[in-house]
Write a structure and sequence with these properties.
Blueprint lengths: L8 H33 L25 H4 L8 E5 L16 E6 L3 H9 L14 E2 L11 E7 L8 H10 L1 E12 L14 H9 L7 H9 L19 H14 L12 H13 L6 E8 L3 E8 L1
Parallel strand pairs: 1-2, 1-4, 2-3, 4-5
Antiparallel strand pairs: 5-7, 6-7
Helix pairs in contact: 1-5, 6-7
Length: about 300
């Protein structure tokens, strides 16, 4: 049964005025940010405080051969929180003595097990105990950890700025956030444009709590798992793509939350965005940012002051 919604004319007019005021205010904020970006870019990118020699492609080297090697940075930490482990927790090897190992996920352990049963190749026995169910918010986390870890999670968060500030709240002084992030140039996001700082800031001012329609359309209609040989979907004239649009829109408007990539990063663009967000005082102060490229993904060590 379809339910029609009718607005009283006066209420509808009031709603339009509120929407117009919100959009005008948002546009002013975004224009101010754009102006700051232009001024910074004119200064030969001298604002990049967290320069990283691993991004010098003239002297390219891979410091960590794989993800496990990267996690060796956790060896001397006493408490670690991993976000979004699903059935492949990566920090169990550090569980010894009095070291604290905890996990957080959007879903409970039982919900993850149920989801894993529906996905071929997932291991229901590998799903760890979930201490924090993040659909209930970050405020429930009262402990502080020496390190927070996530793998291929940050590109899913609807608001990057909010996420980074939430992580800051659960990390001890001079704690570190270690991430592995897919390189958009080497995965199914290949043809989707890189996210810019303006995209990130727009999500913040919109108080985005779920992926927007654009992200759902990109993920469902413009990704390619055979990107090395496929034609750029943005350049095709295939009329069948219209069916993909309809399906993606239907999914978006009939589902509470569609889990897709909200952001597309390369090592260089991620480095630039974090520096810009720091200069704009939109995220908490950072002591150091190190980015280590690898095959298909890159590793990030973000240390707070």
């Amino acid at each position: 049964m379809k339910i029609k919604t009718f607005f009283h004319p006066i209420k509808l007019k009031a709603k339009r005025l509120i929407d117009r005021f919100f959009l005008k205010d948002l546009n002013h904020k975004l224009e101010a940010i754009e102006s700051k970006i232009d001024n910074l870019n004119k200064n030969n990118k001298s604002f990049l405080d967290f320069k990283n020699i691993t991004l010098d492609h003239n002297n390219f080297s891979i410091k960590f051969k794989n993800r496990d090697d990267f996690l060796s940075l956790l060896e001397n930490t006493n408490s670690i929180l991993e976000i979004g482990p699903f059935d492949k927790p990566s920090i169990e090897k550090f569980r010894r003595g009095n070291k604290i190992i905890h996990y957080a996920d959007w879903l409970s352990q039982d919900e993850l097990i149920e989801r894993a049963r529906e996905i071929e190749g997932r291991n229901i026995h590998g799903i760890p105990e979930i201490k924090y169910i993040l659909s209930n918010g970050f405020d429930q986390i009262k402990s502080n950890y020496d390190a927070v870890v996530s793998h291929h999670c940050i590109e899913h968060v609807p608001c990057l700025i909010t996420h980074l500030n939430q992580i800051h709240e659960v990390i001890t002084n001079k704690g570190v956030y270690l991430m592995s992030v897919p390189n958009k140039n080497d995965c199914f996001d290949h043809f989707i444009p890189e996210s810019s700082v303006l995209d990130i800031i727009t999500a913040f001012y919109e108080k985005r709590s779920k992926p927007n329609l654009r992200s759902v359309l990109e993920h469902r209609c413009f990704t390619s798992h055979n990107w090395q040989t496929d034609e750029n979907p943005f350049m095709t004239l295939d009329p069948n793509r219209k069916n993909l649009f309809k399906s993606a829109c239907n999914e978006y408007f009939t589902t509470d939350y569609v889990d897709v990539h909200c952001w597309q990063f390369s090592p260089e663009s991620f480095n630039l965005i974090i520096n810009q967000l720091t200069k704009f005082n939109l995220i908490n102060p950072i002591e150091s940012l190190e980015i280590f490229p690898n095959t298909g993904e890159f590793y990030v060590s973000l240390k707070y002051k």
